[in-house]
Amino acid sequence: MANKKFTIGLLTSGGDSPGMNPCIRAVVRAAASHDAQVIGIMDGYEGLINGEFRPLGPRDVGGIMQRGGTILQTRRSKRFMEKTYQREAIRNMNSAGMDGLIVIGGEGSLKGAHALAEQGIKVVGIPGSIDNDIWGTDMAIGVDTAMNTIMDAIDKLRDTASSHGRAFLVEVMGRGCGYLAVLAGIVSGAEMVITPESPVTVEEVAKAVEDAYLRGKRHAIIIVAEGASLKVVDLARAMDEMDVGFTTRVTILGHIQRGGSPTAFERMLATRMGVKAVEALVSGQTDVMAALQGRTMGLVPLTEVTNKTRSINPEYFEMAHILSR
Amino acid sequence: MANKKFTIGLLTSGGDSPGMNPCIRAVVRAAASHDAQVIGIMDGYEGLINGEFRPLGPRDVGGIMQRGGTILQTRRSKRFMEKTYQREAIRNMNSAGMDGLIVIGGEGSLKGAHALAEQGIKVVGIPGSIDNDIWGTDMAIGVDTAMNTIMDAIDKLRDTASSHGRAFLVEVMGRGCGYLAVLAGIVSGAEMVITPESPVTVEEVAKAVEDAYLRGKRHAIIIVAEGASLKVVDLARAMDEMDVGFTTRVTILGHIQRGGSPTAFERMLATRMGVKAVEALVSGQTDVMAALQGRTMGLVPLTEVTNKTRSINPEYFEMAHILSR
Amino acid sequence: MANKKFTIGLLTSGGDSPGMNPCIRAVVRAAASHDAQVIGIMDGYEGLINGEFRPLGPRDVGGIMQRGGTILQTRRSKRFMEKTYQREAIRNMNSAGMDGLIVIGGEGSLKGAHALAEQGIKVVGIPGSIDNDIWGTDMAIGVDTAMNTIMDAIDKLRDTASSHGRAFLVEVMGRGCGYLAVLAGIVSGAEMVITPESPVTVEEVAKAVEDAYLRGKRHAIIIVAEGASLKVVDLARAMDEMDVGFTTRVTILGHIQRGGSPTAFERMLATRMGVKAVEALVSGQTDVMAALQGRTMGLVPLTEVTNKTRSINPEYFEMAHILSR
Amino acid sequence: MANKKFTIGLLTSGGDSPGMNPCIRAVVRAAASHDAQVIGIMDGYEGLINGEFRPLGPRDVGGIMQRGGTILQTRRSKRFMEKTYQREAIRNMNSAGMDGLIVIGGEGSLKGAHALAEQGIKVVGIPGSIDNDIWGTDMAIGVDTAMNTIMDAIDKLRDTASSHGRAFLVEVMGRGCGYLAVLAGIVSGAEMVITPESPVTVEEVAKAVEDAYLRGKRHAIIIVAEGASLKVVDLARAMDEMDVGFTTRVTILGHIQRGGSPTAFERMLATRMGVKAVEALVSGQTDVMAALQGRTMGLVPLTEVTNKTRSINPEYFEMAHILSR
Predict the structure, then answer these.
(1) Which of B160, B183, B223, B323 to mutate to test binding with chain C, by most C CBs within 10 Å of its CB?
(2) Architecture of the structural domain at B145-258
(3) D17, closest residue in chain C (CA to CA)
(4) Phi, psi at residue D162, to the nearest 5°?
(5) What percent of chain C has pLDDT over 70?
(6) Domain B7-142+262-305 is in which class?
């Protein structure tokens, strides 16, 4: 057909993160402004394999901006790592007339995107991960909202910690990456931060808590990244045996960190990334990811994204330390 | 001294609950309107034993209404159960010229208040407990705020539960009392509620979750009171072994339930109770607790409060069930 | 048809209030538990006149509990006051096989409900009004959420008022009724409250503000009900001419008071009222309104609701005054 | 005295913005890590003229991070523009032994800082302004929190707008600068944005609203910057005379935009700026402002800051337009 519209497949994959919905909205509306159309793929790569498609027009994405989660649902798909299922996916994309694909997700999902690109599919990735562990972008979708959720939770814990003169060990998400923990430490005024990147001993933690007690603080907050080698429960047990001035309590924030209405920063980032991804795709680019680079929105190659490891600004560790005085 | 002012001692005791600060404010300002004065006692009964007192005037309680926790700090005091220490406390109250005492706290703290009243001290209690497990009052201070905190957390979990098609087991506070769990179940649209008062088997839970799956729901939320015989972690393990349609995740809300800025209802309740307690004390009443009774604020005897057990309106269990359809 | 299900028409009418959605959900699911079915009527009485109906099943009301507004939309309908249009409405109800009607709305909407009841239609009302101006119920749907929205806004204003040493005049909703203003005054720690029920002069306001200044307060908050005879803008102008210590700023909170995710109290109230209304209707009752009466949920005759005027507990005015010291 | 500590004066000036408190905290604690000390100056430049000083140690800034406003209070000082009063200020600084000054504030306040620097005082500025109208920094302190407050308010308005099928005209802050309006437009999904930088006619607004109506939207949100030539009230009146499909309502958000607990982004930005300003001052720099430049924290000359005008990324106007489809 001569005037068939450029057609974009769109999926969300991996762990969900707040901001995926405003990003979906931006992709759909930016596509409309390029006279392109969008087909939503349900359940991530599983839906691509199974052909669970539905058209997404500008009216279908009204009122979703303020909602957490993803209207396209998401799933982790192990079998998509296999060639057989990738071939199935490509076949489905072709039947549906998709000219390109936008994948919103974390590192594993972007690996899948890269695999498709290598087989000739035009693919643009968008980084979605509350952990902020994706190389190449200053911020991924979900980080700012998760950070605010963590901060609000710790503000609440501080109320009760102060009233009782207690130390709280707070576990936050971040399997391989302590970004959330370090920044949460700074913005929540924690006495100490424990991350995979900066291992500490039980004795060091105990000393930091005791110091806070001696300096006259009415509570101590220790933030521990999920992926740190010291586990909160073990740490609490050990500290209760020593005498550090405060009694100890544990809170594991868990999945509430993935939910909630996206913040303003999140919606803005998600929107800019969605707009950028559409522009890239309709202008013929592929195998790249939309990325926040300082104040501009750029594109980085997916091969680099999937091969390199993001590290945390060392200045932040220093800052967390200074601020806890 | 002929015109010595009526002097009220004020302490917060036991687990802290949001709303204690607006209650402190109300006691201080209501006292001023009765031309009485307030002495704040730090750290609950411990401060009464140790004589940690400080005067509290109307200006000292400005700007505390919106803050969680308690500016008087709180502590659990085991030794106050002993006569020796109660005598020490009474001696301190007399030295400081206190004509009466207001105690804001949970059941254990109100027992302590009753013990003092039996020894001739004029005491009025105010119920503070996020669990709402205190007999004689419709609501205790802290319940409404805790309920909203729980609800907000579950609203966040639902975002991620829906996006992934998952079941969430959410543990909320409530050692001997399922009030928070049942009401959270209703206001959060949970599929099932598990309380100390209404034991269920693992099989019943599994069936409820599977039913939700079969009826086409995109997630299932099960709320479990801390004091229920089934524990969330065991339940999750058991359900993963059965096949209930959804995969299962656990969240233990923990101490964030005790924090946060008090809600409007909370501030109103805390204020009315503070005003009532002062009125009672200056008019010579003792051994009673301020209590919300329908739409009026009344007084109930502390002996009854400390001997009777509050039960949950059975209509609420039914309602939680009907609403989950 | 022998086994035709009992069919309930459901509409929301008048000004929207947060909590209408959880009430809709409760009506639909409670109906299902009585083996009845629900037909949603769009746009209030306008939709009843125009026959804009859609069936509402338990799955249709999933995920609406946390959303403000009303999925059935609402409108004020002047023409429904006329017999002609009421007849049209009744005709449509009969064609659709409705056995009864539930109306969620304010005083005007409940008058409409009563008019239908007088013509033989089985009708049960549910009070929805953020102003809390409906006779017969302690609380209407929307009040608790609006109160929290107002309180949060004033907590924000206090930040800036304190930093600058300013007086703020804050207009809140309440055309004929100062309920929101008085309670907001108590829970926000306002220096003064101005309502339709308790007129004051400019001089009295100026004196209260000056007193707060002299007592060493860092700001003054004056809450003014929309329906008070003194208008915020005029008052501000007058106060700027006098010298009251603080400079004056005006904030009109406006329609944000109608929005927002319903609070826990709101969802509970809306749910209980929805369940009660369905019970009443299927058991043959008519011309009544579900009402919170202390701790129980009761029914009051619509004739009384539409003829009597709610007054505010005078104790609250006194309390607002005492607390502002 | 041989080993007198380096002493930093610290003031907040101009309109307050959320994030000033975490910035104060960061300055005090960063100073401690450089073995310097901080003297807090009350009420901005007025306090500098009047010598209202108080020492600020690490314990004095505990628990202020989550609070809006500024514990140092702020004021606009006209007389500080005069040489006489600047001389008075310098005299006070010298008596108090201040080696340098940190000023947190908007453009006017930074002009004052520059004036002092020209007279030999070592001064470092920190940009504080919810309008984001300060040249040289990507973001000023207060912007992110204000943006989230605006967004939350509009999310609430949308609830009621959707339920009634209405158009809302929302005035946000921004006297000379439409930054808040444009970004609010994007993150709130507004149909149109009206700023000082991009004037429109009443007819264009009416057309945009009517278009939204025709495209089947259930509401229309128009955001208007305070400094735009079209005023909301006039616009509303004009639109009510035309027939645009929706009826119109006006909301002026006002001073709530200045308050609220700082967001995570805000606290991080404020902290980094505070740390940077202290580093700059103790290392001998002067007449500069801490500035967010992409992902790094830099310094820009105050002469440029006070002479140049910030403009909005034109990409954002385009984006606001595309997204409203």
Answers:
(1) B323
(2) 3-Layer(aba) Sandwich (3.40)
(3) C160
(4) -65, -40
(5) 99
(6) alpha beta
Structure tokens at B201: 């088997």
At A199 the pLDDT is 87
Q: In terms of pTM, does the model score above 0.90?
A: yes
| C325 to B162: CB separation less than 8 angstroms, yes or no | no
> What is the ipTM metric for this complex?
0.96
Is pLDDT at C237 greater than 70 in this prediction? yes
Task: In chain A, list all ranges with CATH 3.40.50.450.
Answer: 7-142+262-305
What DSSP letter does each residue of A99-149 carry, written as one string? SEEEEEE-HHHHHHHHHHHHTT--EEEEEB-TT---TT-S--BTHHHHHHH
Query: Which of B74, B144, B75, B159 lies closest to B292, judged by CA?
Result: B144
pLDDT digits (tens, 9 = 90+) for D238-265: 998 998 889 999 999 999 999 999 999 9
Beta bridge partners of D193: D223
A-contacting residues in D 200-259 (Cβ below 8 Å): 215-218
Q: D267 burial class (0-12, 13-18, 19+ CB within 10 angstroms)?
A: buried
Say which of A30, A138, A155 has its CB closest to residue D322. A30
Spell out which residues of chain D touch residue C12, defining contact as CB-CB under 8 Å.
163
> How close, in Å, is residue C148 to chain D by CA atoms?
13
Helices (DSSP H) in chain C: which residue ranges?
Answer: 20-33, 45-50, 83-95, 107-118, 143-164, 179-188, 202-214, 232-241, 264-282, 302-307, 314-323
Give residues with Cβ within 8 angstroms of B286, minimum separation 6.
Answer: B100, B117, B121, B122, B123, B124
Residue intervals of chain A classified under CATH 3.40.50.460 are 145-258
* Chain C interface test: which of B27, B191, B263, B282 (most C C-beta within 10 Å): B263
- Chain A residue closest in CA terms to D159: A63
Does the beta-carbon distance from C159 to D68 stay under 8 Å? yes
Contacts of C22 in chain B (CB under 8 A): 187
The residue of chain B nearest to residue A159, with distances taken between CA atoms, is: B69
Separation of alpha carbons C60 and C52, rounded Å: 17
User: Hey, is the C-beta of D165 within 8 angstroms of any chain C C-beta?
Assistant: yes
- The yes-or-no verdict on residue A48 having pLDDT over 60 is yes
